[in-house]
Amino acid sequence: MKKDFDYIIAGSGLAGLSLLYHLLRDDHLKNKNILIIDPAKKKDNDRTWCFWEKEQGPFEHLVRHQWKTLQFYSHDVSREFELKHYRYKMIQSGDFYAHLLELAEQFDNVVFSNEKILEINDNGQTAEVKTETGVFTSEYVFNSTGLFHPKMDETNTLLQHFMGWYIKTPAPVFDSNVGTLMDFRLNQQYGATFMYVLPTSPNDALVEYTLFSEKTLKEEEYIRELKKYIQDELKIDDYEITHSEFGVIPMTMARFKRYLGPGNRIINIGTAGGFTKPSSGYTFQFVQKHLLQVAERLKNGQSPVIKPSLRERMFYWYDMTLLEVLLSGKLTGEQIFSGLFGKVDPERILAFLTNESTFWEEFKIRNSVPVIPFMMAGMKQFVAPRK
Ligand SMILES: Cc1cc2nc3c(=O)[nH]c(=O)nc-3n(C[C@H](O)[C@H](O)[C@H](O)COP(=O)(O)OP(=O)(O)OC[C@H]3O[C@@H](n4cnc5c(N)ncnc54)[C@H](O)[C@@H]3O)c2cc1C
Whole-model pTM? Predict the structure, then answer.
C-alpha cells in the first residue's frame, strides 16, 4: 500500500466519517488522497445520536425521527413544551456508517485500513502514523482515537452511563410526536438519574436509563430499572426488546487538546478534541460545526488549527462551573435541571446547551439556579489549576 497521503483520518467513528463527508462534498478537496485507519469496520448500529438544530443539517436524510414537543419531569416539575425553532432529532449510527462507507466507495482516492494505530507523531513538516503494518505520513492527521486523551479520574470526571432499549409493543401505546428529554422521578441514590423516552411510532420507542455518577452499575441494575419504568410508569406489560445499547460518556474537567505537535500537524477531532460538551455529553452538533470549519479552512489553503473563540471559552467556563457543582455534590442534578426547566423557556435552555444562546438568555439561566453554589463554583474555575 502507498505510504504517503494528503490527509490521514485516525478513527472512523462519528468525527472521522463526518470529516470525510465534509471533504468529499467539496470540489477542492474531494480528490485528495485520504487514508482512514480504524480496526473497527463500522458495521454495527452501536449508538443513537440525538441532537437539536434549527435548520436542516447535512445528514437530514438519515434522521429517523424528530420531535417538536418534549417533556421534562422531576419530583417538583412537570412540563411539556413545544419547540418553536429547534427540532430534536435522532440518527442511528448504523445508518450513518453505512451511508458514509457507501459514499467513500465511489472515490478511488479514499483508502481504508482496518488496523490499530500505535503512535501518531508530528515531524514539523508532516505527521506520521505508526500501525502494526507500517508507517504512513501526511500533511495532517485528524485524530479521534483515545491516544491523546487527558487523564480522567473521579476527581475531575463524572461518567454519563446509560442502557437504552428499543422496544416494540403489539398495541399502539406511544405518541410519537412527544419525546421525554428527562424524567427524574426515579431513585437518585447514585447521582443524577433519569429516563429518556423517544417514541418513533405508536408501537416503537427508545427508553434509556441514564445516570451521571462516578461509577457504572452492574448490568442487572440497568435492566431492573428499565423493566420497572416500562411497567410502572409507561404502563406497558407486553413488549419486545428489538435493540439494546450501552454507553459511557465522560463528563470531564480534564482538558482535551485541539491540536498537537511542533508543526500543529495533529488535529484532534470529536471527543478527542474536546467536542463532547462536558456538562451534558452531547457531541454530535459540536463535531459537525467544528468539521465544517476545518474543511472550509483546508479548502482555502489555511491550517485546520482552530483555537476556541472567546464565546466558546465562556461556554466552557459555564460547563466547568456546572460540573464543579455536580462533582462537589452541593446540588443534585435533579435540583439543577428542575430549577432550569421550572423557570426558563425550554427553547432558551436548548440554545444554552448547544452554545447558541445570547447573553440575555444566559443571564436568565444564571438567575434560575441557586446563586451561592454556582457563584462559588464559578469563581473556583477562574482560579483552580487545570487537572
Ligand atoms: C451509546 C452512545 C450513545 C451516544 N449518544 C449520543 C447522542 O445521543 N448525542 C450526542 O451528541 N452524543 C452522543 N454520544 C456521544 C458521542 O456523540 C459519541 O461518542 C460519538 O461517537 C463520538 O464521536 P468520535 O468520533 O469522537 O468517537 P467514536 O465515534 O467513538 O470514534 C472513534 C473511533 O476511533 C477508533 N479507534 C480507537 N482507538 C483506535 C486506535 N488505536 N487506532 C485506530 N482507531 C482507533 C474507534 O474504533 C472508533 O471507531 C453517544 C455515545 C455513546 C457511546
Answer: 0.95
